[in-house]
Known about the structure:
By secondary structure, the chain is of the alpha/beta class. It folds into two domains: 29-246, Type I PLP-dependent aspartate aminotransferase-like (Major domain) (Aspartate Aminotransferase, domain 2), CATH 3.40.640; 250-384, Aspartate Aminotransferase, domain 1. It is built from 13 helices and 16 strands. The chain has helices spanning 29-41, 50-62, 74-84, 101-109, 128-133, 154-163, 215-225, 237-267, 296-299, 303-312, 340-348, 361-376, 378-384, and strands spanning 67-71, 92-96, 113-117, 139-145, 168-171, 179-180, 183-184, 191-195, 208-212, 226-227, 230-231, 274-276, 289-294, 317-319, 334-335, 349-353. The strands form four sheets. An eight-stranded mixed sheet has the order 1-9-8-5-4-2-3-15, with helices on both faces. A hairpin with a 2-residue loop joins strand 6 (179-180) and strand 7. The longest helix has 31 residues, at 237-267. The chain is globular and about 65 Å long. It starts with 28 loop residues before the first helix and ends with a helix. The structure holds pyridoxal-5'-phosphate (PLP).
Amino acid sequence: xxxxxxxxxxxxxxxxxxxxxxxxxxxxxxxxxxxxxxxxxxxxxxxxxxxxxxxxxxxxxxxxxxxxxxxxxxxxxxxxxxxxxxxxxxxxxxxxxxxxxxxxxxxxxxxxxxxxxxxxxxxxxxxxxxxxxxxxxxxxxxxxxxxxxxxxxxxxxxxxxxxxxxxxxxxxxxxxxxxxxxxxxxxxxxxxxxxxxxxxxxxxxxxxxxxxxxxxxxxxxxxxxxxxxxxxxxxxxxxxxxxxxxxxxxxxxxxxxxxxxxxxxxxxxxxxxxxxxxxxxxxxxxxxxxxxxxxxxxxxxxxxxxxxxxxxxxxxxxxxxxxxxxxxxxxxxxxxxxxxxxxxxxxxxxxxxxxxxxxxxxxxxxxxxxxxxxxxxxxxxxxxx
Length: 385
Ligand SMILES: *Cc1c(COP(=O)(O)O)cnc(C)c1O
């Protein structure tokens, strides 16, 4: 009997993946070797070791930027980037209304006002036309974030930012390895930030990086991180050591994940109410999460019922972000337009965590069948939950 013919786990059937979603980070012999080498040479205990320097050099060449600095987290990297372009009290920073909340809060911490812009229906990232209308004499930076596989049209945005002489910061924490028009994500912003957090595709548990593509900011960024004989909030030698082998596998893993996403899209194309984001043919999307629009009416379950049923199957699906403006005082942000699609995204995006994307085809098929059987049994699930 195929998975689809059996009862869903939420109704008492056997979970499709009884052991739960795949573990992350992966068990990787090269990482073990890096850790052992660090132990043997004693470099795990030094302030500034060779791996740290090597990693910054590799990041710079891999992403085609002028400089690369590492630091303690992606969230901190965003703050350093904003400070490097001079964001301070009274300024405005433009970003999408559907965003990583710490980015919004970091802007507040600098005393600046976030200006929230609506997103695109196709892939839930910044709507560039609406962004242009939101510019003001106080605009000090544009923060563009690739999210859930959706990529911002960076060449277009860069052109606009350059015309208006506004610094562009690219948050590619969720798109490391991706490409737009053949160029790596992270190479478009005057400054770009990435994260080495525990769930991210390049992971050291914690950590982040700032890439600088505009010579004007190379020294300033370095100076912000500098405290004389010290740098504050550094990455450790041990973190650098485990990141190097991962960076070397990034291109291949990005392609594997993209193939898995295309495969899932084909497998799920007839499932009503679950629609994957759209991808432009010339891009290579990279995935930290895979974004979908979930339509409750079409599917016949609420989003939370659907997610509960999916998780019971051992599939790592969850809600996307909450709209930044909902439940917040209008004094905490400005917006030029209604945030219509942001509100829709807040209510209806679901995201699939990336580790499953390195699985083989039969496993991906099982994911699709598990979601299909939730659909088949939607009335009974609806009545039960
Ligand atoms: C993960 C992430 C960050 C930063 O994360 P840290 O956990 O602080 O390293 C920033 N922006 C986005 C979009 C992210 O997904």
